[in-house]
Amino acid sequence: MNDAVLFLPGLLCDARLWRDQIAVLPRAMVADLTRDDSVEAMANRALALMPGRFSLCALSMGGYVALAMMRLAPERIERLCLMDTSARPDTEEQSRRRRGLMAMTRGNRFRGVTPRLLPQLLHPDHVSSPVAQDVLDMAERVGRDAFLRQQQAILTRPDSRPDLPAYRLPTAIVVGSDDILTPPAMAHEMAGLIPGATLHIVANSGHLPPMEHPDDVNEILRHWLLTAI
To answer: Does pLDDT of 203 surpass 90?
Structure first.
């Protein structure tokens, strides 16, 4: 089995998101998605990290980049795991809110993830846990300029739903049971469009299952990596 795995973080996330997964995978890497302002540029940078073929696991914004990688180099990717993400583009309302956040940030009002935003990211059980502080710290490390680039990339991503029925690789779709930002309905939609995809709902989790329930996610990934190609 080829055990090379590339992980893609979400918006305002860094390698801490996947800390408990890379700890148990000997050939895992985490891509840096802070340096580019389009999902295609992020995808090309991520592809350059990995020689040959590899398995790809991505969360939220990272999922948008993973779908771009599937468009650019599907022959390089052996397995795909899409976690707490969507194949849809933004709605008009989502785009409007995103542009508003970008305008605030350009006006030197970058606030990263503040405690009042944590309930959108984490299950209520985890809002006052050490995981919450890790989320706040990640956002501070990623910072203002990268946040603007990431938001621009998200704004300009295409609708990937038409691509999904052509996927012919082991695919796991994972979502937190209480994810507010990309709710389970989005995961059900992707699983229904990708032939043979398996759907996993992580109980009592919000938008960040790798941090909220690392053991459950590790078990899902173990089975995913053992799936025959």
So the answer is: yes
